Amino acid sequence: MVAALSERGFYQYPFAFTLRKEVAFDSFLCQLFNAPLLHFLRAFGTSSERLCMLHGASGSGKTHLLQALCHHAEHGVYLPLRQLLDFGPASLDGLEHFPLLVIDDVQVIAGNTAWEHRLFELFNAVHGGAGRLCLAADHPAAQLPLELADLRSRLQLCVAYEVHELDDAGKAQVLRQNAAQRGMELKEDAAHYILLHAARSMHALMNVLDVLDRQSLAEQRRLTLPFIKACMNW
């Protein structure tokens, strides 16, 4: 449970989502095209800009950056709308009192009238107050299939950044770094072999690493090419 002291007293938010411990700005592999965005987010807590919105393909690193922003801030609340959807729009009630709101997967509420209106109200409350708001979606605000035109226009008030997906060399580096964090050595040829055979999103690649991690621990095996082939049935 997340709690904060507001003008209305001590408010408790019942939906507390665990942030991945290993996620930080320093662990985000920042290739040149994402450097301005990373610089902006590092300074977001003291910036004159209080509203920002990230967009990018699935697996591009949006969630990593949003969770890193929460770790970096003193009082940040991470709100994955994909997980909140079933709890209804009332799950956003009272959140305008938090210093930083970080909202992921805005695209999942597109076409849901009740959710769109509630997010519109929350946006207006934060915009009219002193808090900060960072959102993320798979497309820029202008391209989201929102029914509420006023919500689209509000989202377009945000400073907008695209999160560019890593190239293959970057993905291989992330795989090797994550393996090392788990106490495993993943050699360069093995990382590129995984890239050739697995789905290309970082989410899918991390799932492969999860499987290899469990199996290598169970069998006390190193991440050799024969082991990877056998483990993943490639």
Structural overview:
The structure is a single chain. The longest helix is centred in the C-terminal third of the chain and has 18 residues, at 202-219. Helix 3 (81-84) links the parallel strand 4 and strand 5 (100-104). 31% of the residues are buried. The chain has a five-stranded parallel beta sheet with strand order 4-5-6-3-7, sandwiched between helices. The chain has a two-stranded antiparallel ribbon with strand order 1-2. The chain has helices spanning 35-42, 62-72, 81-84, 113-128, 149-155, 168-181, 188-197, 202-219, 225-232; strands at residues 2-6, 9-13, 51-55, 76-80, 100-104, 132-137, 159-162. It has 234 residues and is of the alpha/beta class. Helix 8 (202-219) packs across helix 9.
Give a brief description.
This protein is α/β, with parallel strands linked by helices and 234 residues long. The protein is built from 9 helices and 7 strands; from the N terminus they run ββαβαβαβαβαβαααα.
